[in-house]
Predict the 3D structure of the following.
Amino acid sequence: MTGRKIGIGITISVVVAAALIGTGIRYVVDYQPKLTQAGVSGTVKSSGTARIGGAFSMVDHKGRQVTDRDFLGKFMLISFGYTFCPDVCPTELQTMSEALDALGEQADKVQPVFATIDPERDTAAVLADYLSNFHPRFIGLTGTTSQVADIARTFGVYYSRVKSQNAPGRDKDYLMNHSAYMFLMDGNGKFRAAFRAGIARDGMVRRIRDELAK
């Protein structure tokens, strides 16, 4: 185990993106709860090729320019969110951290990534500080508003700003609605699986091992 447990009051209210429906996705979401929000129930098998993933250009949490090509050669497990997220995002990152620990030596074949959908507040330095709470191999991604919009579109991720009702006069006091999926991409940048927020660590580990074995 990681020993990086953080005290999170978990009240998961997942915002599932309509964008995921519109991307023409046909994939298996094994080991997950029912996908009722996406119009799918039960467990389905992966088939076909999903239009998930592609070219992107971002800045990592160390301030370096990176592109999708920098992640080729390893599997990538990527989550989208923001550092001010009160519940879903830290829960996803903790699950990813625990899954990597459970993978043992196989974890070296998987690069965990957290991409912000809130570039206004999530600078490289903010991401670096936030990710220090989770697995040490996490890479954070931020960028310009345009760059963030591009990578979100590439992965079929929906997001929007929700103004705080408690402090309407403060420009930076807001929450973000966003889709809550973690995507597994292979070493060639091809989509392999999506994990819904709330998935158990063991379910994620089983699926990743299955994909690594192919």
User: Anything to note?
Assistant: The domain at 19-212 is CATH 3.40.30.10 (Glutaredoxin). The chain has one domain: 19-212.
